[in-house]
């Protein structure tokens, strides 16, 4: 093996230049990952390229792979610079595989001089499922070349080695993901919680060559391991927002995804419904600007009930102004929302500045956990929140103030990819339909299983019931059963009426 000290030094350098990073990233194989490798950045760092090339050549010599590779071929296109330098420094002839054959001239798929039965060693930067290696192997073999081995810089340890071996290709990795995490942890570049979260995710997401997903214990995952296929317990470790972590755990412990919209106009009515439905909800949603007798005593009583029944308070304020204004609306005025609401809803229309303004309000309260739900879509007919708006909202949520964003208010499961974010969806009712003001309603099963909701908002379905407590229990049970079916992979279809 190459020198251990050099390997560790290069690992730290790769981290410094953002060749790999931690967050929420969409992968080629269709899943989201808490760690992302982008080794393309090394082309801007000649010293890193030089060191990595030397280590790869040492690795090839140590593994005695010279006979396996009369030629070298980098997987297009990110591994081509590396393969070129390894070829030059190792004095090995190189081949180039085109992603599609030329439509003119020789119409070659493989560029370079070779004969049938010549051997070729594959060079790849990062491997998840091994599909890119296998695509390259197939094209090389179709030209009569013999391919038995591949060298990779980083193995994400998600099934790539096993998948390539099943197709007759041994995969040798300079780094494994677990080794890189160990090096970064020892160097105090990352926290142990990050290591555990990534390890747990990778263990739960092994990918087979046919594109299916496997749990670490070998059982097949029926539905793809995306956000909607993961349990709340597993997703809690991937949340960047501390309040979202707590909410994930609250939901899992209390076994409820029900958010009650207490859109009532008097303190007494809201407190009564909170007492009645409290045991069955994870969130109580308010509109305090319609409460005719709002007072500090009302707030204290509401907080007391939230503590008693273990639910969070969400003020559906829908902030939508410049940062300086929303900071005053959030922290001051008659309602002083920041003092008591765990969560608030926010329009993303003003851009990142609105989150900065809200966050600044609580900057002097480090012990107070607060979070926001960004509105990406609305549940009314004719809403102007289109796909472009939803995409822009998600960019703010995942790339900017991600430690403050607990989730997204939206209507479809394709909006929220990140498993660390919660999808909150309004418009849930046992009887589907549209009210006189254009509010759309779907059944609990459809909202959870078809539309991907994590937290479902129910208002009049409970508020107008003669027995609100019993109706809240019915909604809780229906929603939780739908969630269990969703994560177990049971097919949708058996709607309850």
From TrEMBL:
UniProt cross-references to SMART domains, sorted A to Z: OMPdecase
Pfam family, one: OMPdecase
EC number: 2.4.2.10, 4.1.1.23
InterPro entries in the cross-refs: Aldolase_TIM, OMPdecase, OMPdecase_AS, OMPdeCOase_dom, OPRT, Or_phspho_trans_dom, PRTase-like, PRTase_dom
Keyword Transferase recorded: yes
Active site: 316 (for ompdecase activity), 318 (for ompdecase activity), 321 (for ompdecase activity)
A GO MF term: orotate phosphoribosyltransferase activity
CDD domains per the UniProt record, alphabetical: OMP_decarboxylase_like, PRTases_typeI
Pathway note: Pyrimidine metabolism; UMP biosynthesis via de novo pathway; UMP from orotate: step 2/2; Pyrimidine metabolism; UMP biosynthesis via de novo pathway; UMP from orotate: step 1/2
Biological-process GO terms, alphabetical: 'de novo' pyrimidine nucleobase biosynthetic process; 'de novo' UMP biosynthetic process
Annotated binding of substrate, by residue: 263, 285, 379, 439, 459-460
Chain ranges of the Orotidine 5'-phosphate decarboxylase domain: 257-475
Sorted UniProt keywords: Decarboxylase, Glycosyltransferase, Lyase, Multifunctional enzyme, Pyrimidine biosynthesis, Transferase
NCBIfam families for the chain: pyrE, pyrF
Family: In the N-terminal section; belongs to the purine/pyrimidine phosphoribosyltransferase family.
Protein's name in the database: Uridine 5'-monophosphate synthase
Source lineage: Eukaryota, Metazoa, Ecdysozoa, Arthropoda, Hexapoda
């Amino acid at each position: 093996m190459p020198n251990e000290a050099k390997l560790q030094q290069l690992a730290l350098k790769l981290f410094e230049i953002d060749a790999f990073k931690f967050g929420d990233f969409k992968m080629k194989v269709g899943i989201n990952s808490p760690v992302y490798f982008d080794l393309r950045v090394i082309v801007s760092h000649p010293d890193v390229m030089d060191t990595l090339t030397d280590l790869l050549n040492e690795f090839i010599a140590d593994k005695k792979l010279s006979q396996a590779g009369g030629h070298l071929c980098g997987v297009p296109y990110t591994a081509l610079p590396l393969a070129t330098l390894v070829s030059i420094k190792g004095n090995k002839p190189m081949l180039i595989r085109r992603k599609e054959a030329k439509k003119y001239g020789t119409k070659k798929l493989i560029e370079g001089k070779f004969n049938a039965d010549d051997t070729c060693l594959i060079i790849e930067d990062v491997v998840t499922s091994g599909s890119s290696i296998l695509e390259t192997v197939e094209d090389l073999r179709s030209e009569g070349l013999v391919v038995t081995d591949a060298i990779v810089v980083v193995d994400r340890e998600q099934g790539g080695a096993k998948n390539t071996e099943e197709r007759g290709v041994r995969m040798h990795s300079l780094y494994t993901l677990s080794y890189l995490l160990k090096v970064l942890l020892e160097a105090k570049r990352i926290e142990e919680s990050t290591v555990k979260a990534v390890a747990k995710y990778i263990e739960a997401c092994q990918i087979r060559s046919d594109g299916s997903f496997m749990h670490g214990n070998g059982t097949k995952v029926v539905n793809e391991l995306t956000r909607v296929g993961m349990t709340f317990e597993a997703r809690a470790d991937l949340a960047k927002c501390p309040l979202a972590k707590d909410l994930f755990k609250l939901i899992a412990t209390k076994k409820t995804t029900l958010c009650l919209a207490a859109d009532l106009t008097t303190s007494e009515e809201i407190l009564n419904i909170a007492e009645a439905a409290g045991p069955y909800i994870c969130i109580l949603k308010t509109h305090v600007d319609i409460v005719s007798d709002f007072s500090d005593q009302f707030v204290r009583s509401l907080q007391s009930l939230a503590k008693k029944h273990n639910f969070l308070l969400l003020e559906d304020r829908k902030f939508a102004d410049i940062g300086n204004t929303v900071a005053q609306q959030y922290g001051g005025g008659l309602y002083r929302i920041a003092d008591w609401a765990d969560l608030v809803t926010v329009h993303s229309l003003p851009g990142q500045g609105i989150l900065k303004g809200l966050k600044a309000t609580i900057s002097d309260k480090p012990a107070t956990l607060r979070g926001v739900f960004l509105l990406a879509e609305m549940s009314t007919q004719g809403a102007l929140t289109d796909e472009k708006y939803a995409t822009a909202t998600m960019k703010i949520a995942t790339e900017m103030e991600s430690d403050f964003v607990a989730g997204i208010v939206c209507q479809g499961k394709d909006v929220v990819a990140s498993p660390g974010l919660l999808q909150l969806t309004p418009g849930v009712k046992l009887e589907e339909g549209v009210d006189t003001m254009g509010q759309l309603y779907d059944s609990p099963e459809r909202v959870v299983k078809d539309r991907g909701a994590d937290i479902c908002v129910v208002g009049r379905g409970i508020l107008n019931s003669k027995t609100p407590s019993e109706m809240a229990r019915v909604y809780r049970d229906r929603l939780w059963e739908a969630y269990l079916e969703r994560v177990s992979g049971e097919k949708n279809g058996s709607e309850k009426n």
